[in-house]
Amino acid sequence: MTRLRTNRSLIAGSALLLACLVPATLTWIWRSGRSPLIDIAHRYAPISFSHPLGTDPFGRDIASYVLTGAFNSTVIAVIAVTLATVIGTALGLVAAYGGVRGKAVMSTADLGLAFPPILIAAMLVTAQGASATGEILAIALFGIPAQIRITRQAAHSILVLDYIAAARMAGLNSIDTILRHVLPNIAPILIVHASTSLALALLSEAGLSYLGLGAPPPQPDLGRTLASYQIHIFDHPLLVAIPGVTVMVLVLGFNLLGDGLRDLLERPFNRLKGQPS
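That's the ABC transporter permease sequence above. Prediction below.
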């Protein structure tokens, strides 16, 4: 409990994420995921009680529009990271056992690192058109190679320990060894990597949608919001600042959360490997 109370990164990251995602989730639920209605008669309305951040060039409430976009962007990032974590962890465990299959997995992972998410998304858009599914697949495919490498390294450090050899001598097969001994012990490092990967995934999502490679309208997201508002950077700078600051807060929050989780979980993992903490 003492370490948790003094973990400033974890506290700050959680506070930033809660401050942004709680109102974003409530707004999404309140509006049933729909974009705010266009109201040309009230375009560029100033800050007021009914419009806490004013309205945009189409008369939409900026606060509702950006918060809904933040929720959508975060959901896409979470799904992509979850997909990359599950697939990358499974392949990383295969690679940790070595052999022909392990070498094939690592060779494929090295090849995957050569393809940036923008190129993958461009190919998917060409094949099936712009969609949230293509965006999720592009971000996930980009994250899988790094997940494979981290899982392989962490799992290998466990597989060489004496109690794993004893478990094998007792007749425990590879699947049971992974489920009982490897996965529970490498879970801390996988959790930390997933939390920090969310920051990169969110940035990738914003960049892809900014370029028009993400989910098409009318569903808002942060990247397309920035792209549509950027022409007003000089006459209405608040339009650009609000989604930009939202992206910054979310990315910073996930990064701080990952740092805090690393500080909280790395000592038990090091003790398990017999390393000084």
